[in-house]
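Before a colleague's protein record goes any further, I have to sign it off. What it holds is a sequence and that sequence's fold in token form. My question to you is simply how this chain folds and whether the tokens agree. Thanks in advance; the entry in question is below:
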Amino acid sequence: MSVVVLFDVDNTLFDTERFRRALDHALTETVGSDRAAAFWAHYEAVRAAWGHVDLPEAIHRLTSDDPVIGEAARQCIKALPVSAFVASGAAAALAAAAAIGRPVIVSDGDPVFQRRKIEQSGLAAAVGGRVRIFQHKEAHTAEIIAEFPADHYWLVDDKLRILSTFKRVLGSRLTTVQVAYGAYAAALPQADDLPPDFVVSEVGDVAMLLSG
């Protein structure tokens, strides 16, 4: 039986919460707490409006208000070593996926910073370059399935909304795993959300599920 394992990135393979804390510290040290707070206000406004994080857009909006903090944010993000924020257990989960089939990264987010993060962190190489980035990947389920055909799929993600959408399309051909970590994982279920097949606290636990 052919198997494809679809992995999310933020707060799944990549510890976005820890990255945010490091970025906040760097920004505060560089421009002060008030200007750092202005960056996060734009960051959250973009996420609320678009349903995903888009750092370039947040910086663009911030730069329009305050060019100094906009450039500071750009430089702080560039200076952070993204490989240091790969989630604990990510390598084990990806290796377990490769042992049973093909691991594929399917991420939400902007096509610029998100791709650079995935490549520079080593995650792209770990999945053999099979990386696809969409603003809203749940709108591209048919495209993803067509590009990566398999008898059975696994989807590892922190967002219940996305897990539910893929489950409605694939049904019993999909096993869903929610990584209950970060802002989206803490969100209350919506009325039409489907319960995930498994819930884990970190992506490293996925290795045991795949190996079992």
